[in-house]
């Protein structure tokens, strides 16, 4: 008998939507009464909680943005008194103050359930040993995965990020079967294993649960080949909960099922703010319907993706979000062309001679934006043949122009010269912002 209720994931849409509506109404009633920000915003918009009679009525409510959370820093968005808050996390903002989020005891328990369900979706059971290389701390990855692993009844190794050689030894000795981490850190783990003469094929992993940053299908193929496991994408964000908001299933690995019994998901046009139909690409928006301490209503994530409501062979009825391409605030505009780092990653990874370690540098020279793509040459292709290297740079520039329509200078750099990530990779250095 599982300790969490799997039926929620396969129930017919009608029943699921009835649950969503009840939970939504309870949440709206509660935040209106307890969070001055929401009361003020809804009063101004002339909408009362009683107006939410159907799921469609959600669209009548105003959006919540990161700026709203910043304006209410640190605790003014909390919907419970502090004596009911048992955990605080903060998001890894690169500018300004971090976003602070809180959890009640029940929130922590819900989160553990959702992460247990995530591991289960990724093929995990109580018999697994989970190597958790997500960072422990204010970042939600480490502790979020940790509690879920324990809730599943699996054995969790709380290694966190860093101390990479020791991690490889632990993998050899403790024989973990599931691996968690950011794709960029996992790639680094693979590289260090290689240096130590350790072949992942001799380890015991069946699945890798990778996320917290954008990564491409090409990166998935690379990781699956290097690590000899199934690489499963997991998505989440601190404001909505942390990891455990959506995950791919082991069966399909094609789109991330959103845990719709806890979250309502929408896609909007980020310019007009109008909802977009299923299949169209836009900004992901989340409403939490069970959280106590820090509910969010129509929270604009800035993540770009689309939704896929078609039934999945795994049996889950929950909608899938396609792999996010990136965040609107990570999108580079180079001489008028929109570019996501993940699109450059896709092009680079088509070329066997370069390693999947890259960084984009953006400058403004004589009022013109310039993009330089630094990418490491693969160790096996490293040579003194300057002409050959220049030809490869020219070919990559040509491929980028052809696929993305943007001119970029490609600079091949020596193996292991681009800084390795211990958590989320820094893909862009934008000197225009200095
Ligand atoms: O990254 C939570 C998390 C931890 C998710 C571990 C998955 C695994 P934040 O630090 O608040 O929370 O960052 C959230 O990271 O809005 C996305 O832009 C990005 N992100 C997270 N997962 C993915 C993913 C955690 N699978 C922000 N693909 C989000 C693409 C992702 N981007």
Tell me how many strands there are.
21
Percent strand equals 15-25%
CATH topology of the largest domain: Rossmann fold
CATH class of the largest domain: Alpha Beta
What is the overall number of helices? 11
Uncertain spans, ≥5 residues at pLDDT below 50? none
Structural class: alpha/beta
Number of domains: 2
Query: Could you give a short account of the major beta sheet?
Result: 9 strands, mixed
Q: What can you see in these coordinates?
A:
The protein is an alpha/beta fold and 434 residues long. It folds into two domains: 1-326, Rossmann fold (3-Layer(aba) Sandwich); 332-433, GMP Synthetase, Chain A, domain 3, CATH 3.30.300.30. The protein is 31% helix and 24% strand. It contains eleven helices and 21 strands. The protein has a nine-stranded mixed β-sheet. The protein has a four-stranded antiparallel β-sheet with strand order 10-11-12-15. Strands 20-19-18-21 form a four-stranded mixed β-sheet. Helix 6 links the parallel strand 3 and strand 4 (155-157). Helix 5 (105-121) crosses helix 6 and helix 8 packs parallel to helix 9. It is globular and about 70 Å long. The relative contact order is 0.11. The model has no long low-confidence stretch (mean pLDDT 95). The protein binds 5'-O-[hydroxy(phenylacetyl)phosphoryl]adenosine. The site of 5'-O-[hydroxy(phenylacetyl)phosphoryl]adenosine has 22 residues, from helix 6, strand 7, strand 8 and strand 12.
């Amino acid at each position: 008998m599982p300790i969490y209720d799997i039926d929620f994931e396969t129930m017919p849409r009608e029943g699921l939507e009835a649950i969503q509506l009840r939970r939504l109404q309870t949440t709206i009633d509660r935040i209106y009464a307890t969070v001055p920000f929401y009361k003020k915003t809804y009063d101004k918009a002339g909408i009362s909680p009683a107006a939410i009679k159907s799921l469609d009525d959600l669209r009548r409510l105003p959006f919540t943005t990161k700026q709203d959370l910043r304006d209410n820093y640190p605790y003014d968005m909390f919907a419970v008194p502090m004596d009911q808050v048992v955990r605080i996390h903060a998001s890894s903002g690169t500018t300004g103050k971090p976003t602070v989020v809180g959890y009640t005891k029940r929130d922590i328990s819900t989160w553990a359930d959702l992460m247990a369900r995530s591991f289960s979706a990724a093929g995990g059971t109580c018999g697994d040993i989970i190597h958790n290389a997500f960072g422990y701390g204010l970042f939600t990855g480490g502790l979020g995965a940790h509690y879920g692993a324990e809730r599943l009844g699996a054995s969790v190794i709380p290694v966190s990020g860093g101390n990479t050689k020791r991690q490889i030894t632990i993998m050899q000795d403790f024989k973990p079967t599931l691996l968690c981490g950011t794709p960029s850190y996992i790639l680094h783990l693979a590289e260090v294993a290689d240096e130590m003469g350790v072949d992942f094929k001799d380890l015991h992993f069946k699945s890798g649960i990778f996320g917290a940053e954008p990564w491409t299908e090409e990166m998935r193929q690379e990781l699956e080949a290097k690590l000899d496991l199934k690489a499963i994408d997991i998505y989440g964000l601190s404001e909505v909960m942390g990891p455990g908001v959506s995950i791919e299933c082991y069966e399909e690995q094609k789109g991330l099922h959103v845990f719709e019994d806890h979250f309502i998901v929408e896609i909007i046009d980020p310019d007009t703010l109008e909802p977009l139909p299923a299949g169209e690409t836009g900004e992901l928006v989340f409403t939490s319907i069970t959280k106590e301490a820090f509910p969010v209503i129509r929270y604009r994530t800035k993540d770009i993706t689309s939704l896929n409501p078609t039934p999945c062979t795994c049996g889950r009825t929950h909608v899938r979000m396609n792999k996010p391409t990136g965040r609107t605030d990570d999108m580079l505009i180079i001489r008028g062309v929109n570019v996501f780092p993940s699109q450059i990653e896709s092009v680079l990874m088509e070329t066997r001679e370069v390693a999947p370690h890259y960084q984009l540098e953006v400058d403004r020279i004589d009022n013109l934006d310039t993009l330089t793509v630094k990418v490491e040459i693969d160790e096996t292709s490293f040579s003194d043949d300057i002409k050959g290297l220049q030809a490869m740079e020219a070919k990559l520039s040509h491929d980028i122009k052809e696929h993305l329509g943007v001119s970029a200078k490609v600079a091949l750099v020596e193996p292991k010269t681009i800084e390795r990530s211990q958590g989320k990779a820094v893909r862009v250095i934008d000197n225009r912002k200095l």
